[in-house]
User: Fold this.
Amino acid sequence: MPYATIQPPFTLKFREMSKQELKDYFRWFFDVLPERTRELAEAVRQTPGFETWQPDLTPASLDTLGNWFATQAETRQRTQEERQEIASRSAYPIEIPNEELANRTFSLAMDVGMYLSQVLVKEYRSLRWEQPLNDKIFADYGQPVLVGFGSVPLNPVRIVTTLAYGLVSKKQSGKRLRELHDYWSKQVRANAA
Assistant:
C-alpha cells in the first residue's frame, strides 16, 4: 500500500485563518494523530532495511526513524509563480532557492513531527499541548506546540520540517532526529530542576 500524504482540510496559512478555523485545526491535528502514526509506520516498514521498525514511542525508535527519514526527504523545482510570490513577501531582495521540499516530504515531516511529540509526551508527563492565539507575529501562531521546556515551546512539525531541509541539503543526517529529542529532553529536565 503506497504512502498516503496528509491532507489537512485547512489552508495552513495560520495568520489568515479565523480563530474558529484555528481551533478546528487544533482538534483535527489530534484526531488524525493515531492514523498518521499508522501511516508512517507502514511507510517505514515497506522500505527495505526498515521492515522491523516499531512505533513503540521510545527514544531509541527515533534512531531508526531518523535514518529512514533521511532516505526519504526529497525536493521539487519551484515554479516561477512560487518564486515571485516569495519575492513579493520579502521587504528586501533575497535569493530564492530553485528547489522546495516535495509535498510527500512535507507530509512525512508532519508525520515524523507528530511521532516525535508522542515520544516526548510519553516520556515526560509534565508536557502539555497549547495553541498560541495571542500574537499573529509569533512564528507558531495557531499551531499545536508542546510546552513544559521552560520559556520556549516546541513546534514538533516545524522542527522536523526544518530537519527535512537539512537532510536534503546534506547538512544534517538521520541521527539529528534523536539529537533533537535529546536536546528537548534536557530542556524538560532543566525546567523541572
Notes: DSSP finds six helices and four strands in the chain. The radius of gyration is 17 Å. The mean pLDDT is 95. Residues 15-76+103-192 form one domain.
